[in-house]
Amino acid sequence: MTESTPVGVGLPMTVSRTGGFAGFDDQILVAADGVATVSSRGKETVRCKLDPTLLTPLAAAAQQVDWASLTMVKPSVRHPDDMIIAVTANGKVARLEDPKLKPLVAPVGKLLTEAKTPPGDLCKPL
């Protein structure tokens, strides 16, 4: 990373989790200022501020992704009960298992766990 790299590359970012055996329909929009908008089917949408211990690794991982190399293709279901975790940023979208998104796997997994509705321990209500 060079000093000229702008802070917030990769943010805002939207993480969505759909499908799977449980029928997930979750979406988390993370703004550059660390405010997350969390929505889940059947639950009230909440806004919360991500804890730096969650936001910092997420933002750092987002900066490691070569967003320009990704194509804008909406992830599609590959098999019955396919759970799709997709990341959208910089006008691009990809499934989390795309090798180009490897730096995001751990922070996005933690985001989906901790920024749940109602907000988790690392996402404090505004």
Summarize this structure as a short list of keywords or feature phrases.
single chain, 126 residues, alpha+beta, seven-stranded antiparallel beta sheet, 2 helices, 7 strands, 31% strand, globular, disordered N terminus
Report the β-strand fraction as a percent range: 25-35%
- Identify the overall geometry: globular
Structural class: alpha+beta
Give the overall pLDDT as a whole number: 83
Radius of gyration: 14 Å
User: What composes the largest sheet?
Assistant: 7 strands, antiparallel
Q: Termini distance?
A: 32 Å
- Topology order in helix (H) and strand (E) letters: EEEEHEEHE
> What share of residues is helical?
10-25%
Largest sheet, spatial ordering of strands: 6-5-1-2-3-4-7
Contiguous uncertain segments of 5+ residues: 1-8
Write structural notes for this entry.
With 126 residues, the chain is α+β, with helices and mostly antiparallel strands. It is built from 2 helices and 7 strands, in the order ββββαββαβ. The chain has helices at 52-64, 105-114, and strands spanning 13-19, 24-30, 35-40, 46-50, 83-89, 92-95, 123-125. It has a 7-stranded antiparallel sheet. α1 runs antiparallel to α2. The protein starts with 12 loop residues before the first strand and ends with a strand. The relative contact order is 0.24. Mean pLDDT is 83; it is low at 1-8.
